[in-house]
Amino acid sequence: MSIRAKFLAWVDVLMRVAPLFLLDEILKMNLFNENSSSTQLGNSTNFDMINDTIEESTLNQTEAILSSTFDVYTLSITLFKCLIFLIGCFCSLAIFMLWTRHLVIIYMYVISVGLIFLSYWSNVSAISLLKEGNPSLIEDILNVNVLRLSSPDGTAVTLLPHFLLQYVMGTIFAYIHLGPKHHRIQQILPFTFLMPLTLAILPIPLNIVKHAPTFAAVLPLVLSKIAIWSASIDIFKTLISGYRHAVSFAENFGLSALVENEWQRLNVPCVLRAFWTIRLLEQFASLTLSPEGEALSFMFTIQKLLVSGCETLIALLGMTSIISMICHYLGVLFQMFLMSDEDEDKSIGTVSAILFYILSLQTGLTNLQPDKRFIRLCRNMCLLLTALLHFLHNMVSPILMSLSASHNPSRKRHTRALLVCAFLLISPVILLLILWSRHQPSTWLLAVTVFSIEVVVKVLVSLATYTLFLLDAQRQTFWERLDDYIYYIKAFGNSVEFCFGIFLFFNGAWILIFESGGSIRAVMLLIHSYFNIWCEARAGWSVYMKRRTAVQKIASLPEASSEELQKFDDVCAICYQEMTSAKITRCRHYFHGVCLRKWLYVQDKCPLCHEIVINQDLKTETEKTTNDVAVEPAQVPNLEHLLPRRATPSRNIHLHHQPHRGSSTSESRESSHSSIASNATTNSNQNPSSSGGSGRMMAGN
Ligand SMILES: [Zn+2]
Ligand SMILES: [Zn+2]
Fold first, then answer.
1. Which domain holds residue 178?
2. 346-370 pLDDT tens trace
3. For all residues of the chain together, what is the average pLDDT?
4. What is the pLDDT of residue 65?
5. Is residue 351 part of a domain?
6. Considering only Cβ atoms within 10 Å of each terminal Cβ, which end of the chain, N or C, has fewer?
7. In whole angstroms, how far apart are CA 3 and each of 8, 268, 597?
8. Dihedral, 172, 178, 180, 181 alpha carbons, nearest 10
């Protein structure tokens, strides 16, 4: 990107920041009189601004109608404010969404109107400096009265900057105004700006000169008015065409594509970040420049800044974007530390942003009093921190698996992954120690505790499987029990998670009923109970049943005797490893019991000859049990996971009857590890993806 393009992108972002400030101010507006008293109380700190959402406004409105004895005046004022509120919100959002070229036009118009008022103000203040009875400037010039002309508080010196300013403003206005541009009008415009001061120089009575600024503003105002009249149809057309464009885009590519497209076009995260930073700087300046600013301690300033940073919904969005950026870079940092080059966890920023915003919404952050709001913010930050630990675990766990499976000799990578695990074990404990020593037990504290323990359990499960795979790598022979151990460990981890999920459901329900209600919280609780309790339970049950039927089928097959194995003298066609024990299928093919069991998760046919593996009568019996469990297609593990990764796909496997022995042992062993690893992960119930985890987090508190 060239410097010019970067600069233009920045200008675009800054131009979109202004409507956000407008929206922010509108949201801060007090719609109702009963709030204004509290505003006056805390006016010095500017904290008690209570912003009202639209729903609340209508609610309060009905209350007002019911309680007051039809005070028409207050009602009409309130209605008027509501109207202004709605129009303001709509306008600022519409301006925010405009194309850049339309945005430039709006800015030109606003600047030109602003110039008119600035010029008026400058004229009035300059004329007020003139003193009655003094000889006019033109007389001084004609008399060459150098002393009076050059004296520092004389008329000439005070008027000169205003004179220059007026000329500059006149020229700029002539250049950018949107009214009809005739050659004559363009030439006249700077002079109309200069007119009042010119009159002030001439020997004209002061009470006539005093009215000059008003007349001078007439021509530019008329031009602006014509501009807005003639543009009103265009504005309407632009809005309509924008709406049509959006609708047709959504019809062709879907709503999510539209949102994504607009998100990128408007560069929303960047705009929000710029908005929040500017807002923060403004608050900081007003805090430090205020009379009592010197006495404020550092922590107190930070607290105030944070509290005012989530004052309105739009400010909260800005804060969210900053937090999302911080989380994203934390993720990148850890990824660099782990030396992984996968970019799966790019979403860490997005998910944490959604998590933070919904948490804030469901705890009603913007409507709280400042001190309570700060506490709530800290609590949400704690929850976000535990969520981050979960993300980190999701990042490090696959790395551990791949390290244990791939015989990776790089000790550095092993050490780093283990260090991150140690961090994930220690930090929740420290967090809990600090929180429990300082706070009374509460639903919030319980939720944080549960999330922290969950992280610890998950990390321990990952470490246990990692150790098992490493131990397996040390062994010379095939470890039949490994798959069982892995299954038990995963089952333990998942059951703990499931129990915690149920606990969080009750915790959330408690908060919903006894502490703070709210529709967002109820929806979150529903989402949590569906995805984290119902779906998890179903998936876990189906995995359990599938495994049980597979075990039953395997048990029905005859075991190969040692003579038969000697006569066979080949590797298992599924994992390419030596066989010390084997099961014989109906079609007289030999496989490891464990390998065949994993194959049976997928299908009942022999991998080599496609015959039905087990006897028919048993099959019908087992089929009955499988049909009891609704197996979703997503639950069936991918076929390729069962096969050695470097081998050809399943349908070609019969070509590999006689793989090289010896030379490829290490390679095939390695691939068998990875296949087990990936299989184990698919088998464990569809794992708590980051989004599921965040749903759980929101419902939990
Ligand atoms: Zn095998
Ligand atoms: Zn066969």
1. 100-229
2. 678 888 899 899 888 888 888 888 8
3. 78
4. 53
5. no
6. N
7. 9, 21, 62
8. 30
Alpha helices in 267-410 (DSSP H): 268-289, 298-309, 313-338, 347-362, 370-405
Final residue in a domain of this structure, among 229, 246, 269? 229
Ligand nearest to the CA of 587: 2
Of the two residues 147 and 384, the one the predictor is more confident about is 384
594 C-alpha to center of ligand 1: Å?
A: 7
CA of 400 to the centre of ligand 1 (A): 24
How far apart (Å, rounded) are the C-alpha atoms in residues 191 and 352? 58
Query: Is 452 among the domain residues?
Result: yes
In whole angstroms, give the CA distance from residue 544 to residue 533: 16
Compare 698 and 530 and report the one with higher pLDDT. 530
Calculate how far, in angstroms, residue 571's C-alpha sits from the geometric centre of ligand 1. Answer: 8
Q: How confident is the model at residue 35 (pLDDT cuts 50, 70, 90)?
A: very low
ipTM of the complex: 0.94
Residue 485 is assigned to a structural domain of this protein: yes
Which ligand has the shortest distance to the CA of 573? 1
> Residue 627 C-alpha to ligand 1 middle, in angstroms?
28
Ligand nearest, relative to CA of residue 591: 1
Give the number of the ligand closest to the Cα of residue 598: 1
Q: Report which bound ligand comes closest to the CA of 596.
A: 1
Q: What is the distance in A from the centroid of ligand 2 to the CA of 50? A: 75
CA of 596 to the centre of ligand 1 (A): 7
Mark which of 229, 251, 270 sits at the end of a domain: 229
Q: Which two tokens stand for residue 550?
A: 């597979």
Residue 647 Cα, ligand 1 centroid: separation in angstroms? 14
Say what angle helices 482-510 and 519-528 make with each other, to 10 degrees.
160
Query: How far apart, in Å, are the Cα atoms of 395 and each of 336, 339, 345, 466, 517?
Result: 11, 11, 7, 15, 34
Q: How far is the CA of 508 from the centre of ligand 2 (A)?
A: 54
Distance 581 CA to ligand 1 centre (A): 10
Pairwise CA distance, residues 155 & 127, whole Å = 10
Q: Decide if 89 contacts 26 (C-beta within 8 A).
A: yes
Residue 61 lies inside a defined structural domain of this protein: no
The answer to whether 496 and 457 are in contact (CB under 8 A) is yes
- Residue identified by tokens 């993806």 is 689
The environment of the single-atom ion ligand 2, i.e. residues with CB closer than 5 A, is: 587, 589, 606, 608-609, 611
CA 397 to centroid of ligand 1, rounded, Å: 26
CA distance 357 to 355: 6
Q: Which two tokens stand for residue 378?
A: 């800290």
> Measured in angstroms, how far is the CA atom of residue 585 from the centroid of ligand 2?
7
Question: Structural domain tally of the chain?
Answer: 2
Give 503-535 pLDDT, tens digit per residue: 999 998 888 888 777 788 888 889 888 888 899
Q: CA-CA distances (angstroms) from residue 189 to 95, 161, 360, 363?
A: 29, 19, 53, 56
Which among 89, 101, 87, 118 is positioned nearest to 15, based on CA atoms?
A: 101
pLDDT digit string (tens) for 287-340? 888 776 566 678 888 888 888 888 888 899 999 999 999 999 998 898 888 887
Ligand nearest to the CA of 478: 1
